[in-house]
Amino acid sequence: MAVLRRTTLRLTLSDQAADRYPTVPFEVPPGAESIGVSMDLGTQEGVGIDLGLLGPDGLRGWSGGARISYVVERDDATPGYHPGVVPGQWAVLLGLHQVPAEGVDVTITVVCPAREHPDHGPREAPVRRLLRGSDRGLPASRGLTWYAGDPHNHCLHSDGELSLWELANEGVRSGLDYLGCTDHNTTSHHPHLASVSQRHGITLVPGQEMTTHRGHANAWGEIGVIDFRAEARTWVEEVERRGGFMSINHPVADDCSWLHPLERMPPGAELFHGTWYRNLTDTSILAWAAMLPDAVVVLGGGDFHNRSTPLRPGMPTTWIAAEECSAPALIEAMAAGRTMVTGSARYVDEEEARPELLNCPALVRLGGVDGHGEEDLMAVDATGTVLVDRLGARLVIDEDHQVVRAPAARGPYRLETAGRWVVALSA
């Protein structure tokens, strides 16, 4: 084993201000079978240094703050990284997320060959499916079906704690038809999705979450890596050019709020995030949406990472009216705006909450926009809730399948309980 590079950097707040993403270059020799990278941050508190990799062909992986080491082999790699070793100039990519006022010493070591092999986590056997949201048969236009899922999830390919196989099982346990796999700043999980989908009986939709200190956004589709280090406006342009679909994530969520200025917004917005369950009467995210110049595709995202809270995938649930439950068809339907969000929960026990899919209040667009920009909106199983539009007009729902004329300009629409808890959203 040869040490290709070992260096200690003294990183300060001035370094962070000058360049958020410094690199440590190294040379990979001809014939290399694998490389291993490790980072030593010592024991100092208040340090957050992210880790990634650049190859001769560009961004080769990112694990953020979830790992302090990784391995890249010719045919395999640590989750978060793409396999393939070629000779030439490489670089360890750092992210200076949190640097103490007094600075921090960071030691980077690169070896060839690597000391270890990649670990993709437990290949859990498929669990038995008891429920499928699409079996509810919500009203839809001819040829379409409402599929239930959660487009925003993480696994071991970034900072999630579950393998792809474990994540798929969590989606099946929640009764979901699909799960979006949106790991941070990487697409290393994409090559594995088809086989896991087939094995576990749930559609895994390829995605990536462009993650920066100024905001996060999801992009779905097999569109290659979107470089998170570029300006956010280029994300919008690149995702559109490559045929994907993009959404701003949790726009007002603590220190992950959206701070990137944009002249042109992406088509989607995550208007119901898993953190909303802390306070379902909080309308700050709706205030953000009300300031947008144009309507957006309404999405919800559980942002599932682990089992540390009771919330499982589908909290909230994004329903998509698509021709079939394939990843391309679901992404196409999102782009067409055929979405709605429900937030009702069923508690399995004190430590596990999953979505209520078969009886939850829902807001279904029925299509058929007229010359005045109006179409029918149906409140399903929502008797006793209140329908509220963007301008604050309120209507008490007193029928199980109540149809309301709903101008698109007055959306997004929401259903509230008497206690002002938001339980459903629609454009």
From TrEMBL:
Q: Name one GO molecular function term.
A: 5'-3' RNA exonuclease activity
Q: Where is the Polymerase/histidinol phosphatase N-terminal domain?
A: 149-214
Q: State the InterPro entries in the record.
A: PHP_domain, Pol/His_phosphatase_N, Pol/histidinol_Pase-like
Q: Which Gene3D superfamilies match?
A: Metal-dependent hydrolases
Keyword Hydrolase appears in the UniProt entry = yes
What's in the keyword line of the UniProt record?
Hydrolase
Q: Which PANTHER family match?
A: EXONUCLEASE, POLYMERASE_HISTIDINOL PHOSPHATASE N-TERMINAL DOMAIN-CONTAINING PROTEIN
NCBIfam families given for it?
CehA_McbA_metalo (NF038032)
Protein name as catalogued: CehA/McbA family metallohydrolase
